Amino acid sequence: MRPYPDVLRVWARIAFATAIVTLSATGAVRGATPKDSKYGKVRVGPVYLTPRLTVTAGVDNNVYNTPVGIGDRAVAVTPVLDAVVPLTRFARIKVSGGISPHYFDKEASQRYTDVFGTVGAEADAGPLTVRGGRGGGRYRQRFSLEIDDRLLRHESSHYFGATVRLVRRFSADVVQTDVTSTYDQTAALAGQSVSGALDRKTVTRTLTFTIPLTRKTSLLPFVDFIEDQFLRPEIGLPRTVDSQRFGAAFQFSELAFFEGRIGGGIRRFAPGQGVAPYSGPFLLGDLNVPFAFGTRLALSARRDVNYAVTPAATPEAQRNTAVMATYRVDWQFELPWHFHGRLFGGYSESKYLAPVLVDGSAHSRVDHAWTEGGALLRHLGRHLSLGGMVQAGKRISPLDGHSYDGILYGLTGEVRF
User: Fold this and answer.
1) pLDDT tens for residues 135-193?
2) pLDDT at residue 398 above 60?
3) Which CATH number among 2.40.170, 1.10.1760, 2.40.50, 2.60.40 corresponds to the domain 42-416?
4) Residues 9, 2: contact at Cβ < 8 Å?
5) Whole-model pTM?
6) Residue 385: which of 78, 75, 55, 97 has the closest Cα?
7) Angle at 155 between CA 152 and CA 161, to 5 degrees
8) Which residues are paired to 216 by β-bridges?
9) Are 402 and 26 in contact (CB under 8 A)?
10) Predicted local distance difference test score (pLDDT) of residue 256
11) Facing residues of 154 across strands?
12) How far apart are CA 4 and CA 8, in angstroms?
């Protein structure tokens, strides 16, 4: 294996130097922030900050997710910063943003930089809290099992809502979120324009109640009314598709045995809207759980209906949709000599609700993907960790040329508070 080229060595040095500088700068003002601050981990004047940084530098032996992989050396740096500015005791501004450059040595066409951020404001008036904000981003990171190209996409969003605290810890919350997503208009998949299939404005109106069950656990019944307004609809297809989610979630505080939220319910698409009718379960959850010998498990689950690009093989014009699910388990544990270990595994599935063309005839389609790996890092102080990682991935699909396997390995580092 040839040594790293000069440019990669420079990128790697910059990445890890950034981690050390971030750690030093935040450590210099750490004492100004109370440990129990609800706004952030670091205080600089009137601003409360929570910085995070992750770095990887290594080898990806299948850059394009193809049956015969093409390998390359890669570096990724992702700094993220959350900031809160309290205006008064009853009002505050919240800002979050990040930038994520990804560098490939030989495969220059795959280099990209994701940029994202949000800004919002909250104000309290007695039992009422009102909020609103805007967000946006430019991405080339992969976003589904269906598309392997790193397509340029833009997102813009805004939201507004209010929470009313009624009796004790019982509250009602209403919010409307508008998200506009657009994709590279030159990209196509299976003869279908990605932009034509996916460009849309999604308006979601949500009503949630918080019902305390114990001091540490609450029940959150909710309903979502979703309106997808397609920006470039195919001739013969309606511009708007309506759907609903009816569900409930359990929320656990930091002091509970579980920490996080887990919920689910029914997602419904009525017939006659140019998509396959659907009434089935959805799932959404993130939980942290104590495990054996002082270790911890982090569990995440996502299952819902999303729009697909692959054309539906149906007599009438129809947008294709798929039930897309992702499940992941992370096992985290501390080791002697300030080492920290992680093992993880994940499974993803895309089950298309309309048949697709396979070898010239209509067939049902289900794609499966598995991810597993681990990392071993050494703590260098309270917030900085450096070490190595390895991750293996595999996908199986009935479509010719859509199955692959690959391995990513190298150095990794992070700064967390």
Assistant:
1) 999 999 998 999 999 999 999 999 999 999 988 789 999 999 999 999 999 999 888 89
2) yes
3) 2.40.170
4) no
5) 0.88
6) 55
7) 165
8) none
9) no
10) 67
11) 138, 182
12) 6
